[in-house]
């Protein structure tokens, strides 16, 4: 059974059909790519998957469960984490607090435990701290725990954002253009990081990416969409030579 | 030892204050100003939860204060004194001493529930709407009470002095300063616990990026309502204490001007800074009291120098020019407030030794 299955997904914003009849099956442990020119509807698909929009039509099943009507935080708690095209860290909180706050999904205490500082609260907070440090250590970010993302270089902010997404122990990680704005050595680091994440945490990754180098070296299969419609799918090699993809990106040659 | 020195200092100064008031080393006026300071500290720190930490804009804080003031006043008068409308006391006046905190907390609870009613529809929308809805709520609460003749309507409600006196009869120490200090410490302590826990930091995340908060598993709707209820509940506690300090409440003392005072204190102190709010509440109270003396002096001076026509007097209404002016000047020249998202210990790191705060280390 596929970890994520999307059937007939359509999203309309007024008269605009941002996504039309999109289908995908993402198998557990796979690394799938989603590409397409600007405005093709890629991020909309991610927003639908993570619950920001309720689809106009179609179904999204995660781990066999229909996610219709669920709030983004509930979907995250089910095991879907994501990063954003423009980094959306909490810029004025420390890196450690960024990870801590993301543990709301597993917080087994109420506001009363928090105000009375019950044993349950203290135990949970210690556990959150332990897990946060463990993750930062594993991701090589331990020295930055007390830093604010605002003061970090862009490449490191990406890494912190991926660490934050990993802190909810996702089964599926959605990466929205993780290489955007990175220099070539950061891109190398990112490729290594994504491979390592997949191997180490046995997660499934679905990524939107424009940089061919990243997609080619990471994804085993990919989908290409344009104007909300799927125009091609297959292995990166197949995609690269597909005339429809070339015309979508570069325009038709007979103009 | 150092860990406890802050608490020790707090207890000693509180005891000193109460003793000074008891042995009449300071007069009634100064005691009242100090109590007002405590109440203002509660108001500014609690409003800071919503406007500072959470980054929403509530401007009807006095409305919740009003609910707390009336609920706890009516309760205490009903329970402990005989009253024309509510009849003989339901409980012995001797119990007032022990049940007083419960009465104040009941006022806070009622204010928190009012906060819930306001929060539920308003957090479905974003930004400016909360400001508009809270102003409307403030007016609704006031006019609601003005039209309730049972509790005095626009004439106000009194009788709380007798409850306070009943406490004094039982044991002759200045009870109201004690309760105000206890209430202030309690409120600041509650807020500090809230915003330094992973749970409460959810609202700081909402402030910095709500979309990210929602996607990183923070239940943003629930957190907003919880923070708003906490904030309005604490304002209710401030209201209850305020009512018992003066022994008299009037709906118009909780109008939009009072809400503005709360806003000035928050923005002067700095958004998202607990020590900033405490500091600005103290400064603000001192300023307001100083104006009482400064304005007549200014008036006399202006007349003496013939700067204004003889027929015009600079009255206390000028307070309402000066307070908003402070807000405007703060926004112009130091928009982050005195402290702005930092605590006193960020400026003076040596203070960290004296109290424990969860830090990223």
Written account of the structure:
The complex is a heterodimer of chains A (255) and B (361). Chain A has 10 helices and 10 strands. With 255 residues, chain A is an alpha/beta fold. A 6-stranded mixed beta sheet of chain A has the order 6-7-8-3-9-10, with helices on both faces. In chain A, β4 and β5 form a beta hairpin. The longest helix of chain A is centred in the middle third of the chain and has 20 residues. The termini of chain A are far apart. At the A-B interface, α2, α3, α4 and α5 of A face α7, α8, α9 and α10 of B.
Helix content of chain B: over 70%
CATH level-two architecture of the domain at 10-256 in chain B:
Orthogonal Bundle
Number of DSSP strand runs of chain A: 10
Distinct helical segment count of chain A: 10
User: Please, what is the average pLDDT of chain A?
Assistant: 90
Q: Fill in the CATH topology of the largest domain in chain A.
A: Rossmann fold
Radius of gyration of chain B: 21 Å
Largest sheet of chain B: 2 strands, antiparallel
* Secondary-structure-derived class of chain B: mainly alpha
Q: Helix- and strand-based class of chain A?
A: alpha/beta
Q: What CATH architecture of the largest domain in chain A do you see?
A: 3-Layer(aba) Sandwich
Instruction: Supply the number of structural domains of chain A.
Output: 2
Radius of gyration of chain A, whole Å: 19 Å
Features of this protein?
heterodimer, A: 255 residues, alpha/beta, Rossmann fold, 2 domains, six-stranded mixed beta sheet, four-stranded antiparallel beta sheet, 10 helices, globular, B: 361 residues, mainly alpha, ABC transporter involved in vitamin B12 uptake, BtuC, two-stranded antiparallel sheet, 14 helices, 2 strands, 1% strand, disordered C terminus
């Amino acid at each position: 059974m596929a970890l994520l299955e999307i059937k007939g997904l359509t999203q309309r914003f007024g008269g605009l059909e941002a996504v039309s009849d999109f289908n995908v099956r993402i198998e557990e442990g796979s690394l799938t790519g989603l590409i397409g020119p600007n405005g093709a509807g890629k991020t909309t698909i991610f927003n639908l998957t993570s619950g920001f929009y309720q689809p106009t039509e179609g179904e999204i099943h995660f781990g066999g469960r229909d996610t219709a009507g669920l709030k983004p935080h509930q979907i995250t708690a089910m095991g879907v984490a994501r990063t954003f095209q423009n980094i959306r860290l909490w810029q004025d909180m420390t890196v450690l607090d960024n990870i801590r706050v993301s543990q709301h999904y597993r917080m087994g205490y109420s506001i009363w435990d928090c105000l009375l500082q019950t044993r349950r609260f203290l135990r949970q907070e210690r556990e959150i701290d332990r897990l946060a440090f463990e993750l930062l250590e594993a991701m090589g970010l331990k020295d930055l725990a007390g830093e604010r993302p605002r003061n970090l270089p862009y490449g490191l902010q990406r890494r912190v954002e991926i660490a934050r997404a990993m802190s909810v122990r996702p089964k599926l990680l959605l990466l929205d253009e993780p290489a955007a704005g990175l220099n070539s050595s950061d891109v190398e680091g990112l490729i290594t990081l994504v491979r390592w994440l997949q191997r180490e945490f046995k997660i499934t990754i679905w990524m939107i990416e424009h940089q061919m180098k990243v997609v080619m070296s990471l994804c085993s299969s990919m989908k290409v969409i344009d104007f909300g419609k799927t125009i091609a799918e297959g292995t990166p090699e197949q995609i690269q030579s597909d005339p429809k993809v070339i015309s979508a990106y570069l325009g038709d040659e007979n103009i | 030892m150092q860990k406890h020195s802050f608490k020790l200092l707090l207890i000693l100064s509180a005891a000193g204050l109460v003793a000074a008031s008891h042995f009449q080393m300071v007069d009634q006026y100064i005691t009242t100003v100090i109590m007002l300071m405590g109440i203002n500290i509660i108001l500014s720190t609690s409003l800071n939860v919503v406007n500072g930490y959470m980054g929403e804009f509530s401007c009807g804080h006095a409305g919740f204060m009003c609910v707390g003031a009336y609920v706890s006043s009516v309760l205490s008068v009903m329970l402990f004194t005989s009253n024309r409308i509510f009849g003989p006391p339901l409980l012995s006046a001797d119990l007032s001493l022990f049940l007083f905190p419960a009465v104040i907390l009941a006022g806070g609870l009622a204010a928190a529930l009012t906060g819930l009613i306001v929060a539920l529809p308003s957090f479905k929308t974003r930004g400016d709407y909360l400001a508009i809805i809270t102003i409307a709520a403030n007016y609704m609460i006031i006019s609601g009470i003005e039209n309730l003749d049972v509790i005095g309507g626009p004439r106000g409600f009194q009788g709380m002095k007798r409850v306070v006196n009943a406490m004094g009869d039982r044991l002759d120490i200045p009870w109201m300063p004690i309760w105000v200090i206890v209430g202030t410490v309690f409120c600041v302590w509650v807020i500090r616990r809230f915003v330094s826990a992973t749970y409460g930091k959810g609202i700081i995340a909402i402030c910095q990026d709500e979309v990210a908060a929602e996607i990183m598993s923070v239940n943003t709707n629930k957190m907003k309502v919880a923070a708003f209820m906490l904030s309005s509940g604490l304002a209710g506690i401030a209201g209850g204490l305020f009512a018992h300090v003066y022994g008299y409440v009037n709906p118009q003392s909780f109008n939009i001007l009072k809400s503005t005072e709360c806003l000035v204190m928050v923005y002067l102190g700095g958004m998202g800074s607990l020590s900033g709010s405490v500091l600005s509440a103290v400064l603000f109270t001192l300023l307001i009291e100083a104006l009482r003396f400064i304005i007549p002096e200014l008036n006399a001076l202006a007349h003496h120098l013939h700067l204004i026509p003889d027929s015009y007097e600079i009255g206390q209404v000028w307070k309402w020019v000066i307070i908003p002016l402070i807000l405007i000047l703060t926004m112009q020249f130091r928009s982050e407030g005195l402290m702005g998202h930092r605590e006193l210990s960020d400026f003076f790191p040596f203070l960290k030794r004296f109290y424990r705060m969860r830090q990223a280390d």
